[in-house]
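Q: Got a minute? One more chain.
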Amino acid sequence: MTPTHRTTQGPEGPAPRPARLFGPVHRVRRAGALALLAVTLTGALTACGAGTGDEGTRSAPTASAAGSTPATEAPSGTPSPGRTARGDEVPAPTEVTIPSIGVSSTLMSLGLNKDGTVEVPPADQGMTAGWYTGRPAPGQPGPAVIIGHNSTRHGPAVFEKLHQLREDARIDVRDASGGTARFTVTGTETVSKKAFPTERVYGATSERVLRLITCDGDFDAEGHPVDNLIVYAELRP
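A: Always. Here it is, folded:
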């Protein structure tokens, strides 16, 4: 039986719980140009550095440490938290490939933790990315979100080379029916976890877009990266 996921009607549901408000200004890297953007909402991937036992990837909403609380797969076909199901279902995404950086990964389902933060792949499954079920399946209207580690205590992880992606790079997401949604990278952005652009990443849109999220930047005193890297992509016509 083909796994399915319910789509939603109208505006997207609320973004996962933000970590902090009114973060500092951060730099944006988009198609090679630098610009300054002020951000009012934040939420990110926490503790995804190598060398610790609590690697996690923090996505626009807050993400908890995957090493401390293993992620559980959200059931397919269940309306996402805070969203209204209209009854129709689409095949669940099963695989993401990014030819230009050698990424080929199956996709696990990621939901929300009890505290309202986004689940992340367990540290011992660092080479597997995850699709956040609180947003649409890739190829459907709205912002689809895929999360992955760049490294864990076990070594390099699935999104280790995500920073090498350039504008117009191809991202393919295959679903359980065998169909493929093909996306084109439109830009990348490195942001402080204290200033995560929650609305820009998770906010409602009628466009069929994709966001990839991993950790980035220097390490804090506890050995966790202080930034997140976000890749923005849009569905090819």
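A: DSSP finds one helix and 14 strands in the chain.
Q: Perfect, thanks.
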